[in-house]
Amino acid sequence: MTIPYFHHETRETLKQKASQGFVAVIPLAATEQHGPHLPVYTDTLICDHIAANACVKASTSVNLLVAPTLTIGCSQHHLSYGGTLSFSSSTYLHMLQEIGESLIAGGFRRILFLNGHGGNEPLMHQAAQDLAVNHKIWTASASYWSLCRAELTDLQASEMGMVPGHAGGFETSLIAALAPQLVRWDQIRDSHPKREWINAGPPGTFVGRHGLLTGDDGYTDTALTADAAKGELYLQAMIDAAARWLVQVCQWMNTEEEFER
Ligand SMILES: [Zn+2]
């Protein structure tokens, strides 16, 4: 299994692949507090794993390269808990735009963001839009959990907790599968209720409440029922869904038509 890493290429091979229409995939993750029991690198471990494996699968059908995962994101709403490295929203937006422009300077015309942290999502979509407005290129962007709703429903993942939630049963199951030595099982409390109301409100409405954007204790639901075997099933379903999405979007972005205006 060879992961088609952008950063394993040389400037010469990258120039060649850019001219051949290869799609540059940029995984977006975070380093932020994940409750008392999960490592602060949780989103990066998950996103890196999904992006690398999905790109391996997709690369049998489409030409793509996966760039280094951005391990720090926009996590301002976690700073008060400690254990968080974060860019402000304006800095993060500029950073994504400038990474895109670096790829454009290197000849790439198809840029795709694959995200693994909620706080990055609106800024990622904005950066993808700005890049396509300002340059004659294709862009696309999505968060991994939005690509696999049906598969996770089939696996009844919501019984584990909020999907994806934050440091609850779902994410803890994923880390239990990926890096079990990093789960502090003795730190999981049994009294944490589900916080289904987080970000809930009238349809289409964002509801912000100071100090409660990630739940009372900085996580969304209890991880008591977390399970490594189920985490492995979720991961595989998410990799398969992300790979299908990559193929679909890369083929769509590869339709040869002239850019107007
Ligand atoms: Zn997370």
From TrEMBL:
The keyword Nucleus does not apply. It comes from the Bacteria. Keywords: Hydrolase, Metal-binding, Zinc. Its cofactor is Zn(2+). It holds the Pfam family Creatininase. Belongs to the creatininase superfamily. This is Creatininase family protein. It comes from Paenibacillus phytorum.
